[in-house]
Every structure is written in C-alpha cells, then in structure tokens.
C-alpha cells in the first residue's frame, strides 16, 4: 500500500491495483471483517481517475473507494467515456455507440472489481461527475441489480444509453442523489431538472438539489451528498 499524506499527516493508504479491465485507483476500507461496501467514481470528459479521488479522504472510512479511468484517451491528455464531436454540419454531438460500450465496460468492471477485491456486491454506490454521471445513470437504470446508490453530479439522463426495456426493471432497492449547478454553462440545468420526473415515474427513491455554481461541485454540495451517503451505506 502507498501512504497518502497532507500537511505531514497520514490521510489514508492507497492500495496497489490489480490488472483489471479499466485503470483505477483504490482506497481500501477500514473494515477488518466481512465484505466492505464500495463506491466507484467516474470522472468527467477530459479528466482522469485522480480528479474525483481527491474526495476519498473525506468520505466514510468503511467504504472501499475505487476511482476509474475512462477507456478512451484524449490528446494531449485526459480521457473520455465517449467522444464529443464538433462539426460545422452537425454542431456538437455525442458518440452514443461509444457511450453504450462504456456502459457495459463499467458493468463488467464493477463485477470483476467486487470479485477481485472481495467487496460487497450488494452494497455498490456509483459517484459520477458530468459524463461520468450520464454513464452512472445508464448503468444503474440498465442493471439495477448491480447498484444500490447513485450520486449524480452535474449530469443528466440520456435514455438512448439505457437498455430499451429498462422501465420493466425492478428499482425498489435503488436510491439516487442528484445535484446540479444553477448556472452551469456546460450542461444546462434544465437537462438535469428532467431527472426527478423520470425517477418519480420509475418509483425510484431520489433527492434533487441545485447549488448556485457552474459546472463543478461546491463545498455545500459535497457535504450534502456526503450526509446523504452516510445514511445509505
């Protein structure tokens, strides 16, 4: 394990990772017995696994935290879950074929990580930001048997990325926290505001909050979802 320090104080130990299908960082759980609950982090477009992992030291110690790198490298740096293209004729458009492939890459990774690291496959939380949130929604709504909780930051539900028959799934055990910046200039808040109606129609237990920020996570947003999560794991 690699010790992580801040201002001379030990924050946590970072485990050496296993050679799984997606690159990742891992902070082990503090639990010494039984299978620990796990939180998977999925970063936004152009970022990497180090980004959201900066939250790790502030989250519940009983959680094993795994921050995942998206599979498509970008130039000159960063990674994406799917390409966002800019063309004169089409304008800005998403490569939804790549997104669906990433959805299922995440599903496979969750399964192999739980098995490899001895994690509680019945207590899985997904935390996404932006593009990572869009994929977290797609995974949880397509495969709710794999996911207990979702923290959906600064993203939206894209139904084109969800299995076609997803409305027939059993969502009784799924809980979702949604937040968005009220002045987000990257993903309009109006897109995020559609989520509560969709989740209500699916009878999914959910919370929706807005914060007076742009495309980012304000401190009050962090403490809000942290409090929500502590009651769910």
TrEMBL record:
Keywords: Hydrolase. This is Phospholipase/carboxylesterase. One of its GO terms (molecular function) is hydrolase activity. It comes from Arenibacter palladensis. InterPro entries: AB_hydrolase_fold, LYPA1-2/EST-like, PLipase/COase/thioEstase. Belongs to the AB hydrolase superfamily. AB hydrolase 2 family. It comes from the Bacteria. The keyword Hydrolase applies. Residues 37-230 form the Phospholipase/carboxylesterase/thioesterase domain. The lineage of its organism: Bacteria, Pseudomonadati, Bacteroidota, Flavobacteriia, Flavobacteriales.
